[in-house]
Amino acid sequence: MTSVRTLLEKPWIWSFVGALVVWLATIGFTGGYGAGGMVTAALSLAVFTVIVGVGQMFVITLGPGNVDLSLPANIGLASAVAMKVMGGSDSMIVVGLLAALACGAAIGAINYLLIWALRIPPIIATLSASFIIQSVDISYGRGLQIKPPPGFADFTNWQVLGIPVLAMLTVVFTIGAALALQRMIYGRSVLAIGQNIRAAWLAGVHVGRIRFLTYTLCGALGGIDGALLAGYFRGANVDIGNEYLLASIAVVVIGGTSVAGGKANVPGVWGAGLFLVLLLTMLNTFGVSAGVRLVLTGLIIVGVITAAGGEKAVR
Amino acid sequence: MLRGLLPALSLALVLIAIAWLNPRAISYFGFNLMLNLAIPIALATIAQMFVIAGNELDLSIGTFVGFVGCVTATWLRDAPLIGIVVLLGSIAVYALLGALIHLRNLPSIVVTLGMSFVWQGLAILVLPKPGGKAPDWLLSIMSFKPPYLPFPILAALIIAAIVHFGLMRTSYGVILRGSGGNAAALRRAGWSLLRTKIVLFALTGLFGVLSGMALIGITTSADANIGNGYTLLSIAGVILGGGEFVGGRVSPIGAVLGALTLALAASPLLTFMHIPPDWQVAANGAILIIVLAARVLISRRER
């Protein structure tokens, strides 16, 4: 009984409960038909939200006002860069992935440079940067027929026993991220900065370096996400990352990470990612119109966050 | 001292650039044309400013403006009574959100993120395809041509003056800003934080409604996605205007100036600079960065 209670006290449990409820509601509607296929599809789509969600989580944990609004533009540009470098040939896959990673990391570094040099709030800095990245992408990707190499497209769609390989790899990655957050100096520093930036600085945390690393990491994850998306959907385009602005923030917060910073939660990102994808599947299965689907999605997000409750006031 | 003038300086910077590139634009007709969309942007920025004054953020204001636009172009014209009830009801929803956020201690970013889907969905349900028509009285208000002073500038002055008086000069305005500055102190002094939050959110709703109506009065017809860009524009406007995300430090006059700067920088300046369409968005970002960089230089010199 106590173990159940400790489990219920975990902030991330609610996102998994939500995902489970939505899944059960859908298979209840279809009479059990397609239950397994739905999990497979949800896992393969949730991967992309989870990867950027983890990056966004580290950024948000840095404290109030820290958020990366340039992710959609970053994903779009990186998808184009990756596909162009790969040039449709299997032998260039690794080089293309590295190029996307480098492109994303560079964008993250530039974001922090703007924040640091101009001392502007990260929201405005990443927003301005995203405008510029968007233009670069439009003029860079114009008129290109950008298709992934067949090997890369197969890899991103590869499944073993109904479980997408990409999802397994992402689970390994998120375990690594959780370890980095809780057990490594880098992660502890991020949490310390989020709790009290001045105290962290006085305690000898390299505040500037950690923030720089975090924005670069988030950018790099956006870059790799762009490459994978282009592989999965068999082509890069400018708008490929658009939905990941809201989604990346939503999974972080639904997953139990504090928007006030200093408190992060990796498992919750997975739960929330699955929840969002399954929610969309459910509403599509019910056959509701686009307008009703949006209204219900919004109301359910507000409902979940209300039910899960905010943080207890410290004082 | 100089810091308070920064929003005005940013606007002057953009105006000088425009005057230099195309002197003929600095005229009654030119301003009417260039500041075409400044009124709805200024109203949306003021709306955003109210929530920011209470240390919250509204990520749904853009889709809300779109929703109001769709209601304005359909029900407000065909069945004014229903239209008015719906718009008042949506302000009440905003007030309720404020109460919910306060009572459950929820992060406003997430709640309004969720609401942005709701407003967008409702907008699509009200107006599935772009169209509709603005009520005639609204069209005639928005095409008003006062002597000497272009209407957008006159409207901006009036908006700034009214909100400045309400928020900066009345005693309840001080309480509202105080709820962002030091909530604990206000509570101990016996003020209801629930009420301040409700009032701030209701004001955001009210100015969101005004923004949507003004927008439709200019564009004459609506589209469910018409306001989507306003979320980020309004946040940028508040910050350009010298506002800060925490601490209840906002400036209505600055916010209106910030909105005008954004409205001018967005398209007229770029057209005059002959920037190809591909790079217009980038130029927008670059202008934002340049203005903010100028701000940093000035405030550093001050110290």
UniProtKB/TrEMBL annotation, chain A:
Record key words, sorted: Cell membrane, Membrane, Transmembrane, Transmembrane helix
GO cellular component: plasma membrane
Membrane topology term: Multi-pass membrane protein
Domain of life where this protein originates: Bacteria
Any GO molecular function: transmembrane transporter activity
Principal location listed in the UniProt entry: membrane
Transmembrane segments: 12-35, 41-62, 93-115, 122-140, 160-181, 212-232, 244-262, 269-286, 292-310
Regions annotated as coiled coil: none
Location(s), subcellular: Cell membrane
A Pfam family reported for this protein in Swiss-Prot or TrEMBL: BPD_transp_2
Protein's name according to its UniProt entry: ABC transporter permease
Organism: Mesorhizobium hawassense
